[in-house]
């Protein structure tokens, strides 16, 4: 094959009434979502301080009608109102509210030990949700967790408290507690002391991990996202410059909510029947004594747009020298068998084509394991996808290369620009000269053009935001986030769960 530059047409997506277009916001505005949901509307739970809940109620009231950006061209179009877009009621009057006492929250939020700080702060929010699920008759379709901005600032890795804000201290030394992390104690008092060290120091990941057993979709939102004009710096200007993007916030949170309560906003238009895509997600387990130990998960996406996450075994999958993850034969077989069987239960037969997406190439041992899990009638293909900056492409004029531009290197490898100039938006999806994805059919056999068309199409399945297209296919876009949740704490092996519980 000769070296050549081609352009892949922008993939279309399907909305209500089987209508298709390129832009999610155009499609939702003109045709509505793909799925029709409960006519009685969304029952939404919200947990936060009284201030946070009030801001959420005000925001929810605002998005009942049209919401505009200050610069209308970036909203493509403005947000027409939740019910107008999704045909579904989501009203402030139907909120299930759980109010958190700021004084109780601050006892944990300003703990000097970061592990105790995050563990206690997460529990303050999580307990309200869990208690409602266990003891109340009402069933919420989704829970919004409205956090003060201080939670975002102080409950992340490497965060530290300002001088003079410490409200509580650890009862035992950090070094003593960490000794028992991998060696359970017979004494409950010691176990209680050690528990925070068994979780990652990250509010979002820890909250999602603790709620996985309860299969409750959540959306975490900072108070300043809802009312940025209320949070000013010393110059009396908003700390976060998002007040001009109210329509963006409305589109993104509304679309994510519709997806998390069980609806598909859209699906791909031209996916071949019987095709299944799986993205591998890995995360080094930093709490393990073995530096090579990592958790593996598979994110499976179907032509319908549905996504499911499977947790694999934890083991020595990480090679620090190469910076790569590789499974052993048996865990690879077990992980893919779970995905194949799930597909078979849903469709009554195995997939015709099964694509595995990963950031690195597949070694012989893990590929043999994957192959053993796949029936003879299924074509198995391994595709390596990774962002690179080793190749730059420039275009005459004032704009960068078109999104969808591809440089075919040979029959099995190419470079694909998933960011770049988009005629519909009259702007670029990248603020700088866009870098491509390196795409290689590293195992199995497939047409490189077909593989790239699929990858470009999968950049349009980020239901966590209502954007024109992403830089990575959804199979890899959330890989790090899924891995971080699965390793955020001592979670028992969860059953295959819908993707919406992880994002």
Describe the structure in your own words.
With 503 residues, this protein is an alpha+beta fold. The chain has two domains: 36-260, no CATH class; 267-501, Nucleotidyltransferase, domain 5. It is 31% helix and 20% strand. It has 16 helices and 21 strands. The strands form five sheets. It has a ten-stranded mixed sheet with strand order 1-16-17-20-15-14-9-10-11-21, sandwiched between helices. It has a four-stranded parallel sheet with strand order 5-4-6-7, sandwiched between helices. The protein has a three-stranded antiparallel sheet with strand order 3-2-8, covered by helices on one side. β16 (405-410) and β17 form a beta hairpin. The two termini are 41 Å apart.
User: So how many helices?
Assistant: 16
Sheet with most strands: 10 strands, mixed
Q: What is the number of E strands?
A: 21
Distance between the ends? 41 Å
Strands side by side in the biggest sheet? 1-16-17-20-15-14-9-10-11-21
Strand content: 15-25%
- What Rg do the Cα atoms give? 24 Å
Mean pLDDT score: 89
Quick one: overall form? globular
The first-level CATH class of the largest domain is given as Alpha Beta
Tell me the name of the CATH homologous superfamily of the largest domain: Ribonuclease H-like superfamily/Ribonuclease H
- Please state the second-level CATH architecture of the largest domain: 2-Layer Sandwich
Number of domains: 2
Unreliable stretches: none
* Residues in helix, %: 25-40%
Structural class: alpha+beta
Q: What is the fold-level CATH name, i.e. the topology of the largest domain?
A: Nucleotidyltransferase, domain 5
